[in-house]
Amino acid sequence: MADAVTSQTFIDGPKHAVIKFTNVSDGSGEDAVTKVDVSALATSADGDACSSVVIERIWWQCIGMKVQILWDADTDAFCIELGENQSGDHDYSSFGGLTSNAGTGATGDVKFTTVGHSSADTYTVILYLRKNFS
Predict the structure, then answer these.
(1) C-alpha to C-alpha distances, 34 to 40, 113, 125, nearest whole angstrom
(2) Beta strand 16-24 pairing with 33-36
(3) Which of 4, 58, 107, 128 has its CA 20 to 30 A from that of 79?
(4) Which domain does 57 fall in, by range?
(5) Which parts of the chain fold into alpha helices (H)?
(6) Is 100 helix (H, G, I), strand (E, B) or coil?
(7) Rounded CA gap, 10 and 21, in Å?
(8) Domain tally for the chain?
(9) What is the CATH number of the domain that holds 66?
């Protein structure tokens, strides 16, 4: 068995992406699952590939479990944890957003890990992302 997960892209433009993620757990959870693959995002207006993202805003709700957001690298870097039985609307744009602090092997991708999950726990996370291009 596996958790029932979905991803829905609302916007994938030349500068920003907005993506919704859901999970209805069967108790197995997620462990460092890639949710945002920057190489799969649309290119810039000049045709440059997306190399990383900045999280400018998060809308979220977690029922029965927590979600850790991680920056992908050889050793994944912790970004933020969304609390159990909580919801929120976090706007980080006033200071430029949450940027990756990943070290060696950083890919620019974003991963999720669930913590404390059990059967029928859920999350919904919507990320408003600003794209960076190399």
Answers:
(1) 12, 9, 14
(2) unpaired
(3) 4
(4) 4-133
(5) none
(6) coil
(7) 11
(8) 1
(9) 2.60.120.1330
What global pTM score does this model have?
0.96
* DSSP state for residue 11 in the 8-state scheme: E
d(CA 71, CA 79): 7
Q: How many residues in total does the chain contain?
A: 134
CA–CA distance, 52 with 74 (Å, rounded to integer): 16
Whether 128 contacts 91, CB under 8 Å:
no
pLDDT at 109: 98
Instruction: Quick: pLDDT tens for 22-55.
Output: 999 999 999 999 999 999 999 999 999 999 999 9
pLDDT exceeds 80 at position 59: yes
Tokens at residue 89, please? 């609307």
Residue partners of 40: CB distance under 8 A and separation at least 6:
none
> Residue 61 has which token pair?
């709700």
> Nearest 5°: phi and psi at 39?
-70, -20
